[in-house]
């Protein structure tokens, strides 16, 4: 009898409510693109046989996976910047917050840069942006998004 009302049970309703929205970054598996709800769920996931196989497969060519995720992150972040924020002066954190609203975004922890500050500094070293002062960065003319401004904070 309990199976007949499956989706109307309090437990099922609670699970659907919990599954909506963004969860904590520390419980996300980029290799599986799976979000776990809590520490115990994440622990069970990383100890599973299928996760271990996926990590072993990725570990054979880890540099390729990190480079691929870094490239995707860079292109998606800049498309978010050009699409929604246009040519305004804007903080890098604002652009990043806009980017992570997409539930299926590439997490920065899967890229070469582990923090936004490091990513902005890397953009500066690649001449994609130029430093206006200590905190603000302006995309240079070498980039297709020439008038947008980032901040390292």
UniProtKB/TrEMBL annotation:
Species: Rotaria socialis
| Residue span, DNA/RNA-binding protein Kin17 WH-like domain | 53-144
* Cellular compartments per GO CC: nucleus
A GO biological process of this protein is:
DNA replication
Protein name per UniProt: DNA/RNA-binding protein Kin17 WH-like domain-containing protein
Q: Pfam families, from UniProt?
A: C2H2-zf_KIN17, WH_KIN17
Q: Could you name the domain of life of the organism this protein comes from? A: Eukaryota
Molecular function GO terms recorded: double-stranded DNA binding
Q: Where is the signal peptide?
A: none
